[in-house]
Design goal:
Largest sheet: 7 strands, antiparallel
Helix content: 25-40%
Radius of gyration: 15 Å
Number of domains: 1
CATH topology: Alpha-D-Glucose-1,6-Bisphosphate, Chain A, domain 4
Structural class: alpha+beta
Distance between the termini: 38 Å
CATH class: Alpha Beta
Strand content: 35-45%
């Protein structure tokens, strides 16, 4: 088991950050390692929402929302060869939001043999994702109040 923690301050409200990032399909905009992301479940995003994801170095993996506390915290989990729980907390900081991520990864089976190498790559990628997320959100501008948010309000 290994835990990778990162954070970044984003010049957007917690609601804007939450609504954008909790929808994993938006990862296609900011994560260069994502090849596909498809929502499998109907309805609004919340606990139990599932996505089918493909990153450059992975097979298709099902990812499920296991925590949804709008607008301050969410978590996703998968059961791939690298079992991951990705937990995000958002903290208001004036007109900005501090995003703190916790990436808890556990190798299974043969992945345990290669885990030290994979862990270095994951740490690098997760650290690089922070400015990608910040840039994607800050370029988006203010949330359109005519668009429904992911929490149904």
């Amino acid at each position: 088991m290994a835990v990778i923690e990162n954070s970044v301050q984003i010049n957007r409200s917690p609601e804007d950050v939450f609504d954008y990032l909790v929808d994993l399909r938006n990862e296609l905009e900011w994560n260069p390692d994502v090849e596909s992301m498809k929502k499998l479940t109907d309805g609004l995003i919340g606990v139990g929402t599932r996505f089918l994801a493909k990153w450059k170095q992975s097979k298709l993996i099902e990812v499920e929302c296991i925590r949804f506390e709008h607008p301050y915290r969410w978590a996703y989990s998968n059961g791939g060869p690298l079992t991951v729980v990705f937990d995000v907390t958002l903290t208001p900081q004036g007109n900005a939001t501090l995003l703190a991520s916790r990436f808890d990864v556990r190798p299974r089976g043969l992945m345990q043999l290669f885990f030290p190498i994979i862990l270095r790559q994951l740490k690098r990628a997760e650290k690089q994702n922070m400015p990608h997320i910040k840039n994607a959100l800050e370029k988006r501008g203010v949330r359109n109040p005519l668009m429904p948010s992911t929490n149904g309000s």
